[in-house]
Predict the structure.
Amino acid sequence: MKTNITLLIAFLLFGFNITFAQTSNEDCTNNMSLFAETVKAKKYEEALPYYRKAIKDCPKFNLSGLYKYGEDMFEGLLKAATTDAKKVENINELLMLWDSRMVNYASKSPKGKFEAKKAELRYEYKELLGLTDEQLYNEFDSIYKVDLENFTSPKGLYIYFKMMVSLYDKGLKTPQQLFDKYDDIVDKIEKEVDENSTKLNQLIAKGEKISSKDEKYKRFYTQTLAAFDKITPSVDQELGDRANCEVLIPIYQRDYEANKSDGVWLQRAMNKLYAKGCKEDPMFVKIVKQKNTLEPNADTAWYLYVITGEQRYFDQSLSLQTDPLKKAKLYRKLAGEFKSKGSNSKAREYYYKSMELNPADASGYLQVASMYAGSVKSCGNTNFEKRAIYWLAANEAAKASSDTASKYRALAPSKPDIFKEDMSGKTIKIGCWIQRSITVPKIN
């Protein structure tokens, strides 16, 4: 009898739990539906109570529904907020949303990504939140140390270095700490660019007939590379003259003996001295030769080529470099060297070689376009021919999907010019270093 009563109670409790779970799921479903619909309609204030109930009662119910729509909602609320108190309230709730996501969906919410989102938001509103550059730097530094693999935000990496520069300017960081962090950030950016370039090149190799899923990835990799392409010069601008030859040479002279057996130190020193235009200094030569003695590689061979101008070193550099992306960078460096010397034809040749190896990096087209535009006054016989060169520049820029293409086209001959010169549909041969033909657009 006791056994039967026990079984009856257990059955009733089991049934109650099932009913409770069903009711709870129904509540979550209904509430989530109302939340999603109000966010889609951009009724953010109306959506807020549904969100608060969902984050409290159903934090594990729907990843994309709760957290993605939650982000959209708070972004809308922040834009619409008219008081500082309301902004701070929305900021804090958005920060807690990311915290909740990292707790309840840890495997799909890496700290390197979501802690960076938090730090970026806090940076955006640092005055309102009363945060110092040191506090923000420490936040980003913690992310860098804890989850570097997933710290891939171009914006976050830029802010991280910007805060380092600020601390250096205030005397809170040494020159060596500044340069080390610059190298850390540059290395990370190069790693992310290489990985995204490799993935994008694989999709480019498939041609135009790719799946909608691949097309989505292609857009993502392209946008990511564009973001890194944008922040890379910004990082260099932040460093600015804090690392010119006058600053760098004495530091490397002082630290050379202690680091001459450290391949990483030598490599970074070579790279920075070259990037800052110190390649004529004896210290650059000394470091390159030491690196070549210690760890000869494609980079040291390249720098020996820069120092001596001997073709054998460039050939050695290419033979030592088997990675197509890194080889593309060597061609790009060589193109830059020729461009700086005014050897535009050679520069164009090596920019093209670079892009053959790495189609994901279309920036070489912009370099060629700029060389064409810069030759307008010196190439072409008539004023019409000279301005027609802008069409060549526009065509190159268009290959890089750049807005500058339209700017170049605006400088080319207009329809009235074409009509006046009777050049509609005709071909112009441009001499000098360009050696290209231009077909003038037809006009009706």
Observations:
- The chain has a mean pLDDT of 91.
